[in-house]
Amino acid sequence: MRGAGPWSCTITLRFLYDDKGNPLKGDKEVSFPTIYEAKDVEIWLRRAQAAILMPRANPLDFHNKSREELKGMQTDMIPFSWNKVEVLVRDPEGADLSFVDLPGIIQHHRTVTEVVPFVKKLTERFIKNQNTLIVVTVPMTDDFENQGAFELATQADPEGLRTIGVGTKPDMLTPGNTSALDKWKDILEGTTSNLRHGYYCVKLPSDKEREEGHSRSELEKREKNFFGSTEPWKSLDNQSRLGMRNFVENTSRLLIGLIENNLPGIKKRVDSLLAKDTRLLSRLPELFTADNPIAVILLRVTAFCKTLQGTIDGTQGKDFVRKNRARYDTFKNEIKKTTPSLQGSGARPAPAAPAAASTPSGSAQSTTKLTPLGPIYVADVQATIQAHRTWELPSYVPFEATKEIILQHVEHWEDPLTHCFNDISKNTLDLISSLVHDPKYFGRFAELVSFVETVIGQEAAALQAQVSDLLKKKFNMENSSPLSTANLERFNQERSTWLNQIYRNNGQPHSDEHKVMADVHAYFHIASARFIDVVVLCIEEEWHKKLAVRLEESLIEKIPPLPRETLNILLGEDPKVSKQRNNLTSRIENLTKIKERLSQYEAQTRRGSLGRRPGWTELGAGFRAIWPRRVPQVPLMFF
Question: What is the secondary structure of 158-178 as a DSSP string?
């Protein structure tokens, strides 16, 4: 591409696929050093190619490899790759052209059969673009009529509007190859050419000449001397078909024609890309600057904590409170499911004995053992009373019997309690996370988000542990002695109601078993309701309210002591957003320049003053592996 400043060459590895040919989730780019001497390009290209063909190796390991070392690694390289070596040449006298150097078409491979269809598919993918000139290069020692490249070119360009043939290695044809020499002479003269745009013949520098570091002009002079002193080339009527300079000049005219034909489509594509990138850039948050970063951060902290407190209270949005109340209702139902199922009448059904089972002599199967959270019958209570009876008088029932039955059910409150607090605290932390990432508070500043999340994480974890311990104590109070309530009026009412359901006020004396069952019913009813209320209030008071206060206090305490440099970093733009902004800005600048140059080009075309593009004849054979940049261009395809 044309550009101000000295000549330079930048090589980039673009990894789009893994070593098995599967597309990667994102492009991976690896930059090689920028080269300022043309003679150094070849070795760096070889290093880049080796890095592409050895995808599991570290690309940086190839920077110091010599030509001999690279040759020794060829056995470890894969034959071809979908990944690319991109070469960007900046030349003040150059042209804005893109070249794609494709592998030659092969009919078979000795070891890897997949290579043949791979190369064909790769070539077809690039040459199908209608904005592309196809340059088919053929060693003049080969039979060009059997070249598979021509078949693919014909399929992609059936009218031959985009295809050019180039014969290489004319120096390999000795005077004794009269048949081949005559055939190529006729082809270059156009008498037997099978291509609309015909063929060109070029003599590229040998490996030795490239290693000697000759200048471009010296290599061009040597090529001209060869054609001017060697038959049949020196006797060719149409000398414009010989040499790289003639090839570039004539190809330039074809490129101009192709550009003119495709100019409306190119302009439309540029306008579409420019509008899209401008739209994406406008959606990014504006760049943020602050003279007083402490004030900016503290104001955001205050607003964040105010919104958090309002959401917890239900004054700013109702969804959070509704979600928590639904969870508390679930907790309430889970506790209610542990209510003792007291059966005041009837007997426990006898368990079905196995068909072949027998009861040993002198032993009996127990039918009074309580099943956790199962029905409790009079016989079960009677057995429990007997198990706790010692020296009590006959009219006294041991309180331990009542206590055992109650606690056998209360112990099942712990799991619902733990799960309830875990779910409520998760809801709270999810809410906090969403607010932290909200751009109104901290979301647009990645470093500030990280800082705030660290502080919140520490405070929330500490408070969560404290509240968990407190809830554990509340559970232990219910799950141990003393079993007590000051609400005796409600206790007696519940007790009497249960007994009346059993005796229906018939005046019969109440049995000890029924009295115990009535006590269990009354106490459990009061204790479970008390426990549910205590848990809900404890979570709301000790977790929600205190968390909002602690977060504000901790953030306000930790932010002011930070040095100015750290505060500025906290308010720095998210690296992802910054990268996106830079990429979009750069693309918009490039697309704007392209649009301006296309407009100038169109105006010159209308005036008929286009002429020859300066610098196009300066393109040399050493830069054939230039891949298309991400702008609408007309690339040349060599294969």
Answer: TT-SSEEEEEE-GGGS-TT-H
Of the candidates 67, 86, 79, 77, the one whose C-alpha atom is nearest the C-alpha of residue 16 is 86
For 504-637, where are the alpha helices, taking DSSP H only? 512-538, 546-558, 564-570, 575-607
Structure tokens given for 157: 């360009």
d(CA 617, CA 619): 6
Token pair of 451, please? Answer: 């800082």
Tens digit of each residue's pLDDT (9 = 90 or more) over 265-292: 878 888 899 999 899 888 887 667 667 8
> Would you state the structure tokens that stand for residue 536, as one six-digit string?
């809900």
Query: With 60 as the cut, is the pLDDT of residue 173 above it?
Result: yes
d(CA 115, CA 121): 10
Alpha carbon dihedral 262, 266, 269, 273, in 10-degree steps, equals: 170
Q: What's 391's DSSP letter?
A: S
Determine the average pLDDT of the residues in 350-355.
58
Instruction: Give the Cα separation of 425 and 423 in Å (integer).
Output: 6
- 3-state per-residue secondary structure call for 103-143: CCCCCCCCCCCCHHHHHHHHHHHHHCCCCCEEEEEEECCCC
Whole-model pTM over 0.70: no
| Widest pairwise Cα distance in the chain | 140
Examine the pLDDT at 496 and tell me if it is beyond 90.
yes
Could you give the CA distance from residue 381 to residue 403 in angstroms, rounded to a whole number? Answer: 12
Residue with tokens 């990645």: 446
